[in-house]
């Protein structure tokens, strides 16, 4: 007799499952990659233009330009807006490091304001107090898949004549009061990092804009500062080398028709977690009125976050901490002169946030298993 050990209860829940996603579209993706290789057209061309067109249509902007990464999309946006040394950019301390890094890379100074405790996005009501004569732009992030308050941000930008550059790396497919993602602002930036809601097979990104002037600058800047018509060998400005690979474009084109459905499944998974976890003592993610949240992450707060994470790990569930240290306390940005206590909300969320698996390929059994463990730990 071999008694059961309880091991069959133990499911394995990884934090992401890119392999399953690939296998659903394998034939189409493999064929289109092969056709790019056969064509010998690896940079620019029809496929990149088609992707730019389809994504800008989806996000409600006039123009889109493929670039090498979400980080480059931010750097190029800042550069195209003429932001550089001596300029200040008001941003959030609670984000992935690329947001702050892009500001530093163009030589400008990041100025932080704290986040609100409903969305964990930059608190728009704190921005005006941070404006100085050197302020040139506001750079909010649509964190975890929920848009920052566009109406408030646009109003402040307009009133103070500031640029509005939005880091939407985590929010493709989100909307707010039925306004599309990229309807407002000077530029909206996307990342197609493999684990984003629309992921490439490597690094890739895009800048969206409604401005004819900015798209001209961006087209030039992303390809070595070439002239108006991209004439080879003529440089109007010092630019960058930051193009979106044709191979990445065809991967993204193959996945794009399923983005809506994949986002809907993430939303359904989030609703399922919300239902199962209602009443537990973790603070569940909240969606602000009017926001169509696409749950790039499902992030909860718990005062015993590290123990909760270890408990889940022991039971086969991978989780992540987004983000363990706010930007104003990072060694890289020590020179900005901030100290512990400057942004209490960002600091609290960094201590308590835990993101649990939310990707579309999760099955019900896994969701119930994860929720069951959290209930066991917290109740
Ligand atoms: C992923 C991400 C980026 C950077 O994108 P890359 O494509 O990895 O360069 C920037 N900002 C935020 C908020 C992100 O999540």
Summary keywords:
12 strands; Aspartate Aminotransferase, domain 1; Aspartate Aminotransferase, domain 2; 2 domains; binds pyridoxal-5'-phosphate; alpha/beta; 37% helix; 379 residues; seven-stranded mixed beta sheet
Question: What's the CATH superfamily of the largest domain, by name?
Answer: Type I PLP-dependent aspartate aminotransferase-like (Major domain)
Average pLDDT works out at 95
What ligand molecules are bound, each kind once? pyridoxal-5'-phosphate
Task: Domain count, please report it.
Answer: 2
Which strands sit side by side, in order, in the main sheet?
1-9-8-5-4-2-3
Evaluate the radius of gyration: 21 Å
Biggest β-sheet, characterized? Answer: 7 strands, mixed
According to CATH, the fold-level topology of the largest domain is Aspartate Aminotransferase, domain 2
* Percentage of residues in helical conformation: 25-40%
Low-pLDDT stretches: 1-8
Number of strands: 12
**Strand content of the residues, in percent?**
5-15%
Span of the ends, CA to CA = 36 Å
Broad structural category: alpha/beta
């Amino acid at each position: 007799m071999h008694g059961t050990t309880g091991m069959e209860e133990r499911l394995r829940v990884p934090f992401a499952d890119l392999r399953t996603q690939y296998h659903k579209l394998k034939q189409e993706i493999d064929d289109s990659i092969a056709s790019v290789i056969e064509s010998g057209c690896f940079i620019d061309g029809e496929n990149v233009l088609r992707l730019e067109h389809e994504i800008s249509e989806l996000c409600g902007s006039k123009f889109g330009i493929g670039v090498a990464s979400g980080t480059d999309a931010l750097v190029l946006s800042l550069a195209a807006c003429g932001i550089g040394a001596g300029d200040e950019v008001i941003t959030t301390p609670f984000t992935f490091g690329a947001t702050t890094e892009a500001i530093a890379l163009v030589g400008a100074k990041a100025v932080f304001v704290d986040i609100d405790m409903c969305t964990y996005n930059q608190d728009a009501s704190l921005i005006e107090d941070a404006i100085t004569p050197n302020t040139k732009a506001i750079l909010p992030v649509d964190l975890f898949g929920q848009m920052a308050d566009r109406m408030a941000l646009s109003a402040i930008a307009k009133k103070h004549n500031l640029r509005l550059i939005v880091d939407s790396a985590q929010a493709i497919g989100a909307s707010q009061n039925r306004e599309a993602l990229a309807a407002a602002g000077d530029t909206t930036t996307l990342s197609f990092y493999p684990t984003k809601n629309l992921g490439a097979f490597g690094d890739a990104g895009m800048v969206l804009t409604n401005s004819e002037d900015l798209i001209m600058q961006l087209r030039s800047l992303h390809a070595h500062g070439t002239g108006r018509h991209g004439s080879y060998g003529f440089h109007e400005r010092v630019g960058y080398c930051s193009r979106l690979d044709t191979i990445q474009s065809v991967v993204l084109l193959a996945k794009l028709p399923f983005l809506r459905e994949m986002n809907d499944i993430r939303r359904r998974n989030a609703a399922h977690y919300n239902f199962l976890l209602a009443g537990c003592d973790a603070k569940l993610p909240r969606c602000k009125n009017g926001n169509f949240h696409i749950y790039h992450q499902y992030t909860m707060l718990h005062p015993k976050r590290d123990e909760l994470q270890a408990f889940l790990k022991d039971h086969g569930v991978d989780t992540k901490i987004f983000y363990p240290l706010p930007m104003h306390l990072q060694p890289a940005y020590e020179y900005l002169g901030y100290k512990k206590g400057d942004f209490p909300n960002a600091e609290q969320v960094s201590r308590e946030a835990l993101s649990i698996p939310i990707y579309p390929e999760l099955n019900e059994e896994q969701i119930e298993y994860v929720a069951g463990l959290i209930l066991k730990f917290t109740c």
